[in-house]
Amino acid sequence: MAPLSEKEAEMPNSTLHDMANTIQVLGTSLDAIESDISNMRAAADALREQLKALQTMLTHTEAPAKHKPLLLKERFENHQQEIPKLGEMFGIEITLTSDASDDCAVYSDDSVAKQVIQKIVENAAKGKATEVRIHYQELPDVVEITFADNGRGMTDEQLYRLGLLGPDTGEASGGKGANMIRRLVDAAGGVVTWQSKVGVGTWVAIRLRKVVKDDAKNPGST
Is residue 73 predicted with pLDDT exceeding 70? Predict the structure, then answer.
């Protein structure tokens, strides 16, 4: 234990006792604040999960009439030829994979898809990414297209400021690009979500409603 200073030595024992009690109370208060912060983070995580569930439900709504069924296989083959050029444009290595069946189709427009992919890759380049992995995954009711980059990543606060976790406001630098992606995906009857971690990278997921077998007989050409 450190020796008492001259001023502390002159203080009455009752004063020192009161100070010790005050320190103890402050410590307890700090513990309570840290606990509250932890609970708030847990609540925020729970709300995010609920939001994802709601977004998944939205994919079951009717697709806009202006979009024709588009075979994912045809889109994938086209993108295999075009995406390497996009990677060269932004100095990023892009890998493209798919586990969708040959007859899997979605309601979309290939020109819209190209705009979305280019904007996501452009954002990855701004985040100092050197690699973007794009994957098409066929799920029971939807098709999920994921984009994972190895850029510098962002905090949840940064994602919110850019409009990636909040409403479609178009505010702040980068918000307009994010809102453009959101509107393009919404127009195809889909949903888009963002996740990111500092030092790891950013993950974007787009879900589009699968076309039922009868609607996919005459898919739109790409």
Answer: yes
